[in-house]
């Protein structure tokens, strides 16, 4: 069906059915519709599809692979056109369900050697927000088809008995945690949400409240198995093919497909004491956060978020306590401004520490400067704490408010020396009644990010940078709130304010080469060299929009 007739259902409009004769102008046509939609403020959301216009020769080529036994689907590509953002929907030519690393090597080799325009995107769960795991007219490799977790509690002898876990690129972090906990072990560094794939997060960084101490997830990988853009399967580590190892981690899927990763483990605690405390003053909030991530830090997880000074249950102060009834308007200091800052920390412990944990946490909180009456605590298992977003997922999903709606997210790394200005110019301005989503702000220590990793962090002398995450949900029109185009404009405005502040985007999205070059800064030349080395035809992760596919081998120019 997809290649005889293209259907586009634009929200509310009755236009559509673009037939084969219109194929060459489909790109332009989509643009016009997008512009029209944005002008009339219609959310150009879930229904936009840029259909597949695959060349007959490419189709025949892919069909020949299917004939050789590759599990390939040409019809059921809908899931591969979707992601968490719901902002872009590009139709691939085919979706591959690999049964082993050999399948991945075969398809990458075949596509790399063909004189075609085919590209390949590894796809985890498509939790990207801007089509980064999509491949227009290309091949999407559904990595979750290949799973398998192996815990090595005594290491392999070579790494002095240090425990590790080996997982496939398509395994989920939550499953890695469950498997490790059976041995009383757990990885050290996390994301706030665990239903993400190993390959997808390691292509970015994987940041959470433990990153200040252990670095991001990509700082906790011992070894990778990667299928490069040439179709070669390579084991790499800091000592074995280190160029490929460091290029791939945080490499936005540009150099190879992560088929397996070996991740360091530690002894898992049993429980966590989980604390939130409110501040009215940004300077006091950040001083305490930076104190808490310093080398003597007693807490094992440090985050923070911004709430509006109102009772909005999504992002007002009523979202702070673990029991909503534990807070009331009367408790908010009269001098508080339009926003409040919430520190979030945990102290992990085990049964043996049960009788001292209260005292220990009290003494840790003593030097901090939050409002004493605005302190909230709870206690939960280590697993439940790490998987804390899952309950929210189940609730929101049943109401059609989880992966069913658009998420115009923006994530930034802001140097510590710019954060006060950022607070004045952005945080105090944007957080309103209809922000609708979390706004996270917490510091990270740059020394935990190996300079050889591909990921771009703020350059300059600051030892600390903040992650600031604007995680807005586009609620259905019925519920009111800003339009999607307003939210996207807000993001553009924030990026404009950020430019002189030497911020970097995390989970980045850029329009063109010039912007990508600026994004990677001093890492750009190496990034381009690595592309030439490991994916010379630029077939991998085209949705990142950094390089374009080359039919013949020619030098990749660095702008
Ligand atoms: C609810 C929610 C909470 C989140 N919380 C955090 C958080 O706390 N911290 C944080 O750092 N991030 C967080 N993220 C972002 C998350 O890290 C990214 O979405 C990331 O891309 C992982 O998603 P995924 O596994 O679905 O990968 P995808 O979106 O499917 O892929 C991401 C990119 O990696 C490429 N890719 C996928 N698999 C592979 C592979 N095996 N080898 C090579 N390239 C591959 C894709 O082509 C694509 O370019 C969150 C996302 C959501 C939806
Ligand atoms: C299509 O793919 C989705 C997700 O990959 C799967 O859940 C669904 O069962 C498939 N449908 C058919 C008809 O094969
Ligand atoms: C950052 O980490 C380094 C190395 O562990 C440490 O020496 C330094 O004190 C840390 N800085 C801060 C501000 O936490």
Automatic annotation (TrEMBL):
Membrane spanning stretches: 21-40
Top EC class of this enzyme: oxidoreductase
GO function terms (MF aspect): cytokinin dehydrogenase activity; FAD binding
GO annotation, biological process: cytokinin metabolic process
Keyword Flavoprotein: yes
Pfam families associated with the record: Cytokin-bind, FAD_binding_4
Domain FAD-binding PCMH-type as annotated: residue spans: 88-268
Family, per entry: Belongs to the oxygen-dependent FAD-linked oxidoreductase family.
Protein name from the UniProt record: cytokinin dehydrogenase
